[in-house]
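Fill in residues.
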């Protein structure tokens, strides 16, 4: 039974707050929830309308913003004021997208190539985050209208290959739209959840998620075990989808009917009309053997056989991507337990047949492929709401996370393959007397030396009160939240001074980068162990030299001339050994210096103790 609270101020009944699942798509977006009665996920829609909201934004002269079906109608007539595919720009610089700049019929600003892109409409500039927030705001309003309750919390899905910058941008867009984004979930993970995969702890499966939408194609290979979804590989084509199928039909009709291509290009309305007819034919052919239509008196026909021949090359392209994804995951076709279909274009029978044939098993296509991702997001939202307590969705860190310590060594706080969310802390201390600050440099990677890893962030903990070296206790803690965003905090425990930083790397690692870093760590493992041992020996030697130096300065009067000379010689020898690449030599010299200083150090300590005892009345 759901709990119902009472708002004391207003006396009204308070339903438990709803968390929605949102699929923020390149072509279409939608919202889903777990139905309070049936406990099944459902996509939200008004009566007699589609649950899909085209991810299109239109700006009129007066600055009014329209999102969805109405905006989509303006794509052809007002291309400069109508923004589509904003998702393709998320977290990207102009440099990243310049190869495909002609794809965008609106103005993408290219003056500062390294910074994040902006779009110009009239005399206003919008970031992809702003644009996505308009779509999310529309989705929020629609959901509130349908559910008749405020919607403030959401789970939003992103492609598995989205990097930190793109995930953060999606989260920011949610915030701008007035949504508290509780979790960013990978689209293939959400799709798997919608098929009930991974909902039981003992589930152990390898899944291929084939996602062919309107404009993009993704294949993701996932492994589920112990409730953890691990992305083994991703592949695809960011410019391949249903639109290309429509274009292939348009071309076919142009050839058949003798429509002049130049005339067609000049007539925007006709172009749009023939494209819509092509889409109609494609959809019709998913359930029928031939299509007959008409446009301006011209007959437009196509049979299923002709259609299949037309699109075979497109389907073959996706099969090649599937094969590459398997190779990247070091898997064979027989290792895939389940194939899940996502995206409207997977309704094309040839697509289903070809993919089923490639993987050697029937594909899972019973859930509406347009809604499957949003439905999975709703399931995740329900889990977060605590309604499914024995199950927690987890991701893992692809690379180790740590900080730089003495001598440029990597000290790992969270090892690679750790579950997310995660928390780790370790104590450090100062190296010099009176040291008032400590640099905290955060790195990602598997190598022993920080110079071989990737720097994520750096900050200074300042204001440590003057204390002898080794006295301050600085606790460095790493917290990775559920979206994989890392917060690093440093706190001096005696004084309470603290500083923290949120690590949002703008340009993140691709799968290939991660793979390369892992391979490097294996190739260099032997060298790394040797280097670490040398650095540790050097650090120990330097610390010994410093403490000895201090001791001598303070107690010179209590030492014999011989002791002083021997100590100076041993210190010199140790200093020299540090400059050489021989850790054993350093250890020997450390021992020699210790052997010389130990007797007088003990003697002086004893003297100090007995002096102190004498002064005390027992
Ligand atoms: P999505 O981006 O997942 O919303 O997919 C939208 C694409 O799916 C568009 O290209 C649609 O034309 C296509 N689509 C929708 N229904 C069908 C269908 N029955 N047969 C073939 N393609 C379809």
């Amino acid at each position: 039974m759901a709990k119902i609270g009472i708002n004391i101020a207003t006396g009204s009944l308070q339903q438990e707050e709803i968390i929605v699942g949102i699929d923020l798509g390149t072509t279409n977006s939608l919202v889903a929830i777990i139905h309070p009665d049936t406990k099944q996920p459902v996509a939200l829609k008004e009566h007699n309308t589609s649950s899909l909201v085209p991810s299109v934004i239109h700006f009129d002269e007066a600055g009014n913003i329209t999102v969805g079906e109405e905006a989509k109608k303006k794509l052809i007539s007002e291309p400069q004021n109508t923004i589509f595919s904003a998702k393709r720009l998320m977290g990207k610089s102009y440099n990243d997208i310049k190869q495909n700049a002609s794809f965008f019929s609106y103005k993408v600003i290219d003056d500062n190539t390294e910074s994040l892109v902006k779009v110009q409409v009239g005399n206003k500039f919008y970031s992809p985050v702003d644009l996505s927030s308009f779509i999310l705001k529309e989705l929020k309003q629609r959901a509130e209208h349908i559910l008749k309750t405020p919607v403030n919390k959401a789970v939003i899905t992103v492609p598995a290959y989205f990097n930190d910058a793109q995930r953060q941008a999606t989260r920011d867009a949610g915030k701008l739209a007035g949504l508290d984004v509780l979790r960013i979930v990978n689209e293939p993970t959400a799709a798997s959840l919608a098929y009930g995969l991974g909902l039981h702890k003992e589930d152990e499966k390898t899944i291929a998620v084939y996602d062919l939408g309107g404009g993009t194609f993704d294949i993701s290979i996932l492994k589920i075990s112990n409730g953890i979804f691990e992305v083994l590989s991703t592949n695809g084509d960011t410019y391949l989808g249903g639109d290309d199928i429509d274009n292939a039909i348009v071309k076919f009709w142009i050839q058949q009917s003798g429509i002049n291509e130049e005339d067609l290009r000049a007539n925007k309305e006709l172009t749009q009309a023939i494209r819509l007819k092509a889409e109609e034919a494609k959809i019709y052919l998913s359930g029928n053997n031939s299509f007959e239509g008409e446009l301006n008196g011209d007959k437009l026909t196509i049979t299923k056989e002709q259609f299949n021949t037309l699109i075979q090359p497109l389907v073959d392209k996706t099969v090649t991507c599937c094969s590459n994804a398997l190779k990247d995951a070091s898997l064979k076709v027989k290792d895939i337990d389940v194939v899940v279909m996502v995206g409207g274009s997977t309704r094309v029978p040839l697509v289903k047949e070809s993919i089923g044939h490639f993987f050697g098993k029937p594909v899972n296509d019973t859930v509406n492929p347009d809604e499957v991702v949003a439905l999975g997001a709703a399931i995740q939202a329900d889990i977060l709401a605590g309604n499914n307590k024995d199950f927690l969705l987890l991701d893992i860190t692809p690379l180790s996370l740590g900080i730089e310590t003495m001598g440029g060594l990597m000290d790992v706080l969270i090892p690679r393959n750790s579950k997310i969310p995660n928390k780790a802390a370790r104590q450090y201390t100062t190296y010099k007397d009176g040291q008032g600050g400590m640099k905290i440099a955060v790195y990602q990677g598997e190598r022993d030396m920080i110079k071989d890893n990737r720097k994520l962030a750096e900050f200074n903990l300042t204001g440590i009160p003057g204390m002898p070296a080794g006295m301050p206790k600085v606790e460095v803690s790493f917290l990775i939240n559920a979206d994989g965003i890392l917060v690093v905090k440093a706190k001096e425990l005696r004084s309470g001074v603290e500083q923290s930083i949120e690590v949002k790397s703008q340009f993140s690692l691709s799968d290939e980068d991660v793979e390369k870093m892992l391979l490097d760590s294996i190739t260099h493992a032997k060298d790394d162990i040797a280097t670490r041992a040398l650095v540790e020996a050097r650090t120990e030697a330097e610390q010994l030299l410093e403490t000895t130096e201090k001791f001598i300065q303070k107690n010179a009067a209590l030492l014999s001339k011989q002791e002083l000379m021997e100590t100076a010689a041993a210190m010199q020898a140790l200093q020299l050994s540090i400059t050489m690449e021989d850790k054993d030599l350093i250890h020997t010299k450390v021992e020699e210096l210790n052997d010389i200083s130990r007797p007088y150090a003990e003697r002086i300590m004893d003297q100090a103790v007995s002096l102190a005892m004498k002064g005390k009345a027992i």
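The first strand starts at residue 4 and ends at 6.
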